[in-house]
Amino acid sequence: MTEAILLVGGKGTRLRPLTVNTPKPMVPAAGVPFLTHQLARARAAGVEHIVLATSYLAEVFEPYFGDGSALGLHLEYVTEEEPLGTGGAIRNVAPRLRSAPDEPVLIFNGDILTGLDIPALVDTHRRTGADVSLHLTRVPDPRAFGLVPTDAAGRVTAFLEKPQTPEEIVTDQINAGAYVFTRSVIDTIPADRPVSVERETFPGLLAEGAHLQGMVDSTYWLDLGTPQAFVRGSADLVLGRAPSPAVPGRRGERLVIDGARVAPDAKLTGGTVVGAAAVVGAGARVEGSTVLDGAVIEAGAVVRDSLIGAGARVGARTVLDGAVIGDGAVVGADNELREGIRIWCDAHIPDGAVRFSAPAA
């Protein structure tokens, strides 16, 4: 049995206003908190015990998931008094682990949607005798990520953080945010202080001669750190492009959660999700979007690639394209909001006030 650590302590700053009231892993994707998909995939891979490393809005997780028995898991929760970074969070939960010193521990970040073959990563770790094994994926433009070049045998040779010049881009392989640590290696991370596993732990282990193994798995992978990516990930789950055993319904163009009301002539496409108690009015068109619980899309509105927060309202004939509307916000009738604009929680835009808006600063 492989146990796991799930890192869910981040503030989700890039996702605001979605994360003002909700920690990033608890924002709904395809009808359930995103964390549900990660837990379900780990359980399907044979993981039984998971320790959640929490910090921001930590009090939200346990009331929702409890001991994990509903998912066939045993969950424990460890809250950081002060943010400790990725490496510090891993070290902070070490006392809750049950693995022997030479056994593998799976670690993954709480904002990655992936089709990673988890058993294959664990098998790679065991077969190569690595101290740490990393899931690597290939991306067309790696400048926003940490590069991880490997030799012919897959052994990691360097860690290069966010290169910018062509000379620095020596590979298209990036750190994909899932790892297997030999249990004893976790205890070498300094305790009780912030540590970045990407910038300190991994380069330090490499400098000391440790064996860090890379496994390239180029199945579905998406960093959900921005609102646009989060909306896309939710749609991909509904459409069946991204794998998860936790989608609460059939894959297809739309997912309407029990209790939602959708007008017969409204059109929902592109993996749109309509949450519980949400309303979509007559003639509205919603494409590739997430409408959270209790939100209202009034008659004739057009919503594309957008996220509508819990309890928010979009007025009649309003057009949203690539917009994020915070919880409880009201966008009046006959507005037009495009290109990544974010409307803060509980804000109010009067009827006809905005015909077009560029991205928020």
Describe the structure.
It is a single chain. By secondary structure, the protein is of the alpha/beta class. It is 17% helix and 28% strand. It is built from seven helices and 30 strands. Helix 3 packs across helix 6. It is elongated, with a radius of gyration of 21 Å.
Any descriptors?
single chain; 361 residues; alpha/beta; 7-stranded mixed β-sheet; 6-stranded parallel β-sheet; NTP_transferase_dom; Mannose-1P_guanyltransferase; NDP-sugar synthase; GMPPB_C
Q: What is the overall pLDDT average?
A: 92
Q: What low-confidence regions span 5 or more consecutive residues with pLDDT below 50?
A: none
* Cα distance spanning the termini: 47 Å
The helix-and-strand class reads alpha/beta
Largest sheet: 7 strands, mixed
User: Beta-strand percentage?
Assistant: 25-35%
Q: Please state how the strands of the largest beta sheet are arranged side by side.
A: 5-4-1-6-11-8-12
Q: Total helix count? A: 7
The helix fraction, in percent, is 10-25%
**Beta strands, count:** 30
Rg for CA atoms: 21 Å
- How would you sum up the global shape? elongated
Domain Nucleotidyl transferase: 4-236
InterPro entries: GMPPB_C, Mannose-1P_guanyltransferase, NTP_transferase_dom, Nucleotide-diphossugar_trans
Domain Mannose-1-phosphate guanyltransferase C-terminal: 254-338
Family: Belongs to the transferase hexapeptide repeat family.
